[in-house]
Amino acid sequence: MREKSTDELQRELLEAMDLDQFLSGNRGQFSCESVAEALDRLFRQKNISKTALARRSGMSEIYLHQIFAGRRNPSRNRLICLCCGLGATLDETQELLKLSGLAQLYPRIKRDAIIIYGLAHGEDLFEINDRLFSEDEETLF
Fold first, then answer.
1. Virtual torsion, Cα 102, 88, 116, 100, nearest 10 deg
2. Residue 72: its pLDDT value, please?
3. pTM listed for this prediction
């Protein structure tokens, strides 16, 4: 079965006369990956150690291991810190935020615009935080 776009699913859902029929007909279209699984997949692609990731993300290794084990759900700021530590792209970061049920980065919000710029230009977490601080915006940690 081919994967439907989000727009296609939205249109079908709004036009559906029966929710059960929509759900059963699109069973294979729903995301089943947890945040911990998505982070682990991205972590393996980036080929760095968890020690290095903890350092680059500005968090303890214990907290990091709890996130990867699925025992803790990171806040929006902490998830962005993890994405910075992983060297994630803007698209990868947005996908993880969406999967977590957290607000995606929005360029009309100055703080988010600074974060987007940093992610898109390969800045590390500390460079992004410095820029947030210099613009009188809340830092990520």
1. 0
2. 95
3. 0.86
